[in-house]
Amino acid sequence: MVLSRTNGPMPNALIQTYEPFPFVIDHGRGDRLWDTEGGEWIDFYGGHCVCSVGHSHPDLVSAISAQAEKLLFYSTAGKVEIRDHAADALIEFSDGVADRVFFCNTGAEANETALKLACRMTGRSKFASVEGGWHGRTTLAMSVTDDPAIRASLEEVLAPCDFLPLNDTEALNRFDFSQCAGVILEPIQSMSGIRVAEKDWVSALINKAHASGCMVIFDEVQTGIGRLGKPFAANVLGLKPDFITSAKGLASGFPMGAVLMSEDVAAQLKAPDLGSTFGGGPVACAAMMATLEIILRERLMDRTTEIEHRLRNELLGLRVTALRGQGLLLGIESKDAKALKSKLYADQILVGGSRDPNVLRLMPPLVLTDPSVIQLIYSVQAFQAVAV
Ligand SMILES: Cc1ncc(COP(=O)(O)O)c(C=O)c1O
User: Fold this and answer.
1) Rounded mean pLDDT, 321-341
2) Taking the model in full, what pTM does it have?
3) Which of 267, 297, 327 is the last residue of a domain?
4) Among positive and negative, which fits the CA dihedral 300, 231, 201, 355?
């Protein structure tokens, strides 16, 4: 290689963000990862809820490489058939909760876009969100994110936002949406510890927001693309927000984001409202279409529900007090969560932490195999058996 620093004694230039796993990842396949020492890990973390059809699914890899050979990239300045096909595929997959889509690159960009459009369409500039909600690191997305560490020293540049307590009907009844452009919520809050928004509360929130001319955004960056056993949480709830935002599992690891909306909302868009150089790039579209095909062909949404039921039956015990969430977005609740995480790591099972110290998150690839499920159950049961 012409650049030689990778071979030299120089310190590594990469800025550290999250605390890394205790090993270096070499390669992955399905629901497994292998480290550079040859160790095999079961991945219940899924690259942070991303690798929906598993690591390097052969059909996904072929779709990406075929499109890369044909046309790696062209922006939306040029019409490319695969972009139109991808939009139709995602709307068909979404099964009635949206009619039109805008492609971008990340979850934050999808949320930023939906929040911005809510401002444009209502002429308002204030937001509402939910306590514990996490929506990304761009300015409007941070404005609606309830995480002091993310917001620190930026309050002055963030947009005004009020945070509603989750599932609190009285607080919702008292809340005034009349100044709000949009209200955003995760149907299941992930980062704050798998906290599920109750259907009746969400339904009342939509009705109340709409009665005051405030638009509703479901942040489905983690709950979407089949993870809950349906295409989106909106399908699970039988509710239709104005915008659904998607990313993470959408193209199973190839960067892609999307904002889905109804025909009525799309009809209000004006030419300069939307744009993104890389959004809906041909390779991302190929990756997304392959992801959706695999999910449907391999019946992964049914599988998600089956595994959830099995885990519900087998994981609860003295030291695991609850299994929160739905499908394969689950939270193991235990006051010994830290010790359980260490036990699972010792057994080479990757899980995620959360902002709730008593909750570990499971967000594995949807292609999770029976041996992996059994190994998790076995490890948790072995942990239960050890005296506290
Ligand atoms: C619910 C939710 N929304 C938005 C985001 C931001 O997504 P991205 O990191 O792709 O910008 C995340 C990221 O973890 C998320 O969990």
Assistant:
1) 97
2) 0.97
3) 297
4) positive
